[in-house]
Fold this protein.
Amino acid sequence: MAKNIVLIGMMGCGKTTVGGLLARRLGRELVDTDALIEQRQGRSIPDIFAQEGEAHFRALELELCRGSSGQDGLIIACGGGLPLQDEAIAALKENGVVFWLDRDPGETYDALDVSGRPLAQAGREDFVRRYQDRAPIYRRWADYIIPCGDGPQAVEQLISTIYREVSKP
Ligand code: S3P
């Protein structure tokens, strides 16, 4: 069976949107790590952060990644901070091809719905700094770095690029 397609990148870079479109085009199932954690916990991510803190949320991400071994053929859209834990992203990379959707952080922030995103509450500068801190980590794990723009045309281009890469014999 085909390796998983693992999408990483900052909050709001389009992982879930692109993942959904790719899933449809490739006839594969989309797993969104945030949505799966919310579903398993029966609580929203802001509630998990507020009640137990970020460290607990990261532990849930790690648990999910550890449990994903042996699964293939999926599109996995990762929460933006998932690659910060080596063990979590390494578990996904074992059976997946990793794509970093690299979008300009200022542009991303300006278009971002910050509600429901506890780590996007401290403003634009903080968001850009967070991107700069994370960029080397995303780069380290990425098999492919896909520069992303804004708008439907850019999304279409992005999907075609990923589609081409994963369809290579
Ligand atoms: C986070 C990104 C969020 C979610 C959580 C933490 C982060 O996912 O996992 O709020 O650390 O960047 P999205 O990237 O889907 O917004």
Observations:
- The beta strands are 4-8, 29-32, 74-77, 96-103, 144-148.
- The pocket of shikimate-3-phosphate is lined by residues 11, 34, 45, 79-81, 117-119 (CB under 6 Å).
- The two ends are 13 Å apart (CA to CA).
